[in-house]
Write the structure tokens for this entry.
Amino acid sequence: MNRRSECCHYHPSLDELLADEVMEPVLRSAGLDQHELREMMVATARRIEDRDRRVVADGDTV
């Protein structure tokens, strides 16, 4: 990727994404609220990190 295109990409934070007005009806249709989605994402990230640590500890590659 060239540097020009990399410098122009904006990566919003989770807080910014959850604050977006489009997210409320999307979350509502999924039966979630902002807090529940955040908790789900944190739990998923922890499971992935734990799995990666186990794989590395066993000498395998991720």
Notes: The chain has a mean pLDDT of 84. The CA atoms of residues 17 and 38 lie 11 Å apart. Residues 12-57 form one domain.
